[in-house]
Every structure is written in C-alpha cells, then in structure tokens.
C-alpha cells in the first residue's frame, strides 16, 4: 500500500521541479542571457570586461533607451508609436539648425526640439484619441510626414558648422561646446548621456509604479472600457502617453545631435526598431509580462552588449541584425509561454 | 446504445476538479446535467467533446471503449456539442447553407455543386425544424437560429449524442420553446441529449433523467419526475438552502433618481421612472428588452441628450466620470470586459474608482490601498489567497463581488446592477442579494436589471416590467406573482396598469 503511494507521488514531484525551472527561466531568462553573453565575450575577448568598454556600451545604448522609454509608455496604454524614429531625426535637425543657421544659444537649441517633440506627440494623440484612427496607421502616417518634413527643411543635406547655405553664403553659427557636453561630456568619469538615461529610467520607473499617474496609464491599457466606467479619463491618459513618447524621442534626438556634433538627416531611422525590440524584450524581464521601464532598460542593455561584443569579434554589422531578431524572438517566446501557463 | 463515462478523474495542477465522476446517457433521452459553478460540469463536457483529456477513467459507447483525445475523435464517435457561444462555431460571413454543410464540404470534391449543397442544407435544417432562407448570411441570423444551425451542423456529422451547453441562457421565452421542440424531435429520432441548464422549470419541462455534480462527484442520478425541486437544489448545494422568506416591500417616499422622458439613444425611446431612497427597484425584462441600453445611457456610457434629476438636482450625464460625480455607479453585465480589470490584482481593482483618495500629492499610498482592499475582501467574503491576487484567478462570483466592492466606499447613492447574478453560483447569489439589501438599508437607491424574474421577486421592493424598450407595467412585489411577471415580460399581457412614470408624463 505504502509503496504504491510513493510510486504515485514521484512523477508529480518531477513535474513540479520542471515547473519551477520553467518559472525561473521565464522570470530571469533575460538576465541569465545577459550573464551568459557577458561571460562568453569576456572569455573570447580580453578588451570586453573593462570599465572603458562598459561605459562605451552604456553610452551606445543611452539614446536607444531614451527612445524606448517613450515606446514603452505608448505600449502601456495598449498603443503603439511608430513615429519615434523620425521624431528623433527631426529633433536632431532642429536643434542643430537653431545653432548653425540662426546662431541660437544652447538653451534654445534644447527647447525647440522639445517643443517639436511634444507637438508631434500631441498630433498623434489627436489622430488616435479624437479622430480614432488605429494607432499603428496614425503614427505610420506621422512617421512619413515628419521624415519628409525634416528632409525638406534641410534639402537632404546634413547640418554642420559653417555649412554653405542656399544663397551661397556660409552659415553664421556653429554647434556650441556647451551643447556638445550633453552627448560627449563626462561627470565623475561617467558619460553624461548615461547619467541622463539613468535619471529618466529611474524617474519614469518611480512614476509608473508609485504614482496615481502611472497606475492610471496601466489601467487604461489594461481595459479601456472598465477603466472608463470607473471614472478614469482614458482619452486624456492615452494622450499623455503619446505626448510623452514624442517628448522622449526629442530628448533622444538632442543627445544624438550633441553626440555626433552635426545634424545628420535620417539619423533616427534605425532607432525605431531597436527601441521597439528593447521594449518588447522588457516584457519578459523579471516575469513582468507587461511593458515596464526597468525591463526596457535591461532589453536595451542586452542588445547593446551583443552588438558591442560582436563588433569586437569582427562580426560585420549587417549580420548583427540576425542576432537582434533572434534575441527578440527568444524573449517573446518566453513571455507567451509563461502567459499560457498562468 | 448507451454512453457511459466511468470514474473520470481530472485535475489541474493540485486542484482536483473531477473526482471519479460516473455519467450515463441513453440514446433517445434528454439528460440534464446540473451543478453549481465549479462543480465540474464544463470540465466533464470538455472531456466528452474531446477538448480535454481525462487523467484517468473510461468512456464506453455501447460495448465499445473509446478514446476521445481530440475533438475530431469525439465527432467520429458520434458526440457533438453546441457550445454556449455559438458564434465561435460559425462563420458569420458565409451563408446558412455553407455553414450547415461545411463539414461535408471539406470532405467532398474540390468543386462545389451549389444546388446539391443547398438542398442538403435544407434537408438538414428541416430535421431541426428551422425554416429559413439558406442564402442568408449567418451574421444576419438571430441567436436562436444560429443555435439551430449549429445543431444542424452536428446532424450532418451523424451525431448520436448531443451536448447543449446552457443553450437557453440567452434565449427569449418563445425561442426557448422552439429549441425544446427541436430537442424533442431529435430525441424521437434517437439522439441522446445532454442538457446543461441552471433553470429547474426548464429541466422539469424537457428532461427525462438528471445527473447532479457537486465538487467533482456525482451526487444524484435519477429520473427527473422522482425528484422534487428542493431535493435537486439540495443535491446541488449539499446543504438545505435557507428559503428566502416572503418580505414586505419597503415603501419609500423620498425620490432619489428621477428620469422624466429620458432619451435612451440605443433604443431611440424615452423612458420615465422614479427611484426612491432605500428602495430596490427591479427592472424586469427578457434578453433584448433593452435593460443594458438603459443602464448604459444612465451612466453616460452611451450619453443621452436628456438630464436626470438626482436628489432634486439636474444632471446631464455625458460621461461615466460625470455619473460618478452625480453619485451613480454601474455594475455592468459584462463583468470580465467592463466590470473589472482582469489582469490586475484585487486591491488595484477595488481602489480604482476612488484612487484619488489613496494618494499624497500624486504618490500612491499602497498601504492604505491594501488596508481598504482587505476590509472590502472581508466584508464581502471574497475568496482569494490574498488581496494582491490577480482577478483572473477568481471564480465568477468572486469577480462579481470585486466589481461591486469597488464602489462601496465611493459615496455613490445610486447603484445600477445589470444582470448581477449571471453565471455565478447560488452561494454567491445569496451574497450579492445580501449586499444589495444592506445597501438599501443605508438608504442607497438600487436599480436591479434582470431577466431572472424569481430573483427579482426576492430582491426588489417594486418591479417595472420592460418590454421592447418600454416600461409596460409597475408592480409592488406583494401584488404580483412569477407567472404574471413572466407573461408581462414576454408580452403576453398587453398593457396591464400603466406605471407611475408614464402617468406623470
């Protein structure tokens, strides 16, 4: 009798330990992947695990992360913002133009793109909330318009110090050193963009998890109808999310302009996909199963480390997209698998 | 031939849902399968229709043991199911003929013989007694027609045993009668029918045999005629249900909510009524009478162009937020879609309508939120492992309590309940009723929209009967009977005495 009970219990226990393993994997899989990759690169390349390289990695991901924070916010309200990449380009161009063409001070060169970013976000909000266009389509349209706009303004040329203008004269201004500090400077041997990134990651994380504002953003995305019936002004919160998304894209644009030191056209185009990938990978971090800023940061770190390591190992840049895609698929698999279980 | 399920066991993780259930259905009988929510009915039915696999146990059809490891195998064995949500079994953009014959068509040749196909569809529909143009799109059919189309589909696959999962819940009285005719016809042709329903009168009207499940065990197997209603209910509950005693209606005079020629946009009709303080006003109406439409208009979900008067003050309610300001709240019928946030923890659900009270300059006071959640959970008897549990994991009745509980501390004075007992078990129903009467004792006004007329008789003080978007009668509960309400609600008695609201207009 006793024996038969033991036999019956055994497979149950095994199943349980398998479940726990799976649970751990879904919860910490992404972090584990980062550790494994770090270990691997450290063994393969002596240069990898150094302070300088780490600051390089963080500096490299700081701009993507800033854009990805905005994407995360739009994902939280169950929307999507495709226009962030082109907003980055527009912000880059507008801040450099302000200095180079119109000899404006750093403060103005920062404020103008911020206003533009906010404006783009508000137009997105208007199209999605008031006119009720589907989010993807509205922001896709905006993406094209902003892209065209910033190319039209610059006639397709990049903006740099004392560049020749349309009428044959040279541009009067140049990009100021105080502006360049944003992207190139260091505080206590930490790159300034990295400080900006950490500041916003922590601030937004606190806002999302410990304030009414954050709660209502999540609630709006969780179930719009139920939230509305409970008196949540869902339209307003959706509008906030898109406005902030535009704002963060423009902050990223300013950092980018300062980092390169010129206003490159279409500079933000590649940032859209990277930031979306980071935000989606973020779903699976710590088993959150929802968009969250810390996860987004971890996602961006994962992508950054991979690209850095692969570059060190002389893997050509065009092959790196394969790795990015694979990581994204892996993270999403973990997320959907764990959703099925619960 | 007999369908026998023997010692069926099924558990999910640690949770044993079926503990050695025995279930037997003969061909040519209508067999009621009964049990409160969570008794294991759906699981048993899913196993029988091949959607789920039992952990152990045997299934026999006649002298043959069968394995029903996939829906396909169940169909091959002659077991068909009409699911509760018939829309999921149909293709809305295809015609009736295409839908009815879809399974034969998939087996047939690559080319379609339309004429043959339509004839075959007509023939199958005749078997269920449905006369309908086979060229119509299924999306244009009524719910009861769709059910019959699904039954015809099953017939095309030579069904021996047919499961009907709560088919009458969304049907009107006449539609139910039609369905019963179809069931009798099928029974005569030798099909064994498994009929799942919560409604005892229906079971008495149509079923031969009854099996009652309770907590994953078979507790009663008998001919229906040998059991009294009390015995069946007792088998379902496992304890004697305290009979709700006849109560005297509270007669209240202070008007709380007055609607005078209030326009309901979705119905394109005007309604008038008065709700008094401390009164439970039942709105009796069958499915399609317009209950949800009225409730939605009152709380500004479908904003009306007319104001309502609350405590003597006029309010134009254009938005649910405005309704909250006016002290109006709705516990919606679709609780999983509209009542609660299914992926959020209980405490966050409960705090949502008054989240502004949980904040200090924008920062959430989580402690306060949890304390409040704990109070509500204890007060309403919400069964959960902790107040931080996700609402998805709760049973229907407990989800409903969350949907109600979030309004308790908001200071709302008028509560609108839209079909609050839909899909919850008897225990939870009793709890919901006691919440409602304690709200009434606190001088709140309650509008109770329901098609469960006997429940309306237990819970309300006064009942307005809604038929086709209009109040056609008003009754105090001690002046009326279930039969009278039913015939009013089905449009059987036209007019009756006009109710107070229409008199004043």
From TrEMBL, chain B:
Compartments it resides in: Cell inner membrane
EC numbers, comma separated: 7.6.2.13
Alphabetized SMART domains for the sequence: AAA (SM00382)
Membrane topology value: Peripheral membrane protein
CDD domains membership: ABC_Carb_Monos_I, ABC_Carb_Monos_II
Reaction(s) this enzyme catalyzes, per UniProt: ATP + H2O + (2R,4S)-2-methyl-2,3,3,4-tetrahydroxytetrahydrofuran-[AI-2-binding protein]Side 1 = ADP + phosphate + (2R,4S)-2-methyl-2,3,3,4-tetrahydroxytetrahydrofuranSide 2 + [AI-2-binding protein]Side 1
Any one Gene Ontology molecular-function term assigned to this protein's record: ATP hydrolysis activity
GO cellular component, one term: plasma membrane
Leader peptide range in chain numbering: none
UniProt cross-references to PROSITE patterns, sorted A to Z: ABC_TRANSPORTER_1, ABC_TRANSPORTER_2
Keywords from the UniProt entry: ATP-binding, Nucleotide-binding
UniProt-listed InterPro entries: AAA+_ATPase, ABC_carbohydrate_import_ATPase, ABC_transporter-like_ATP-bd, ABC_transporter-like_CS, P-loop_NTPase
Tree of life domain: Bacteria
Residues in ABC transporter domain copies: 3-240, 251-493
Function: Part of the ABC transporter complex LsrABCD involved in autoinducer 2 (AI-2) import. Responsible for energy coupling to the transport system.
Recorded family membership: Belongs to the ABC transporter superfamily. AI-2 autoinducer porter (TC 3.A.1.2.8) family.
Subunit details: The complex is composed of two ATP-binding proteins (LsrA), two transmembrane proteins (LsrC and LsrD) and a solute-binding protein (LsrB).
Record protein name field: Autoinducer 2 import ATP-binding protein LsrA
Organism this protein belongs to: Shimazuella alba
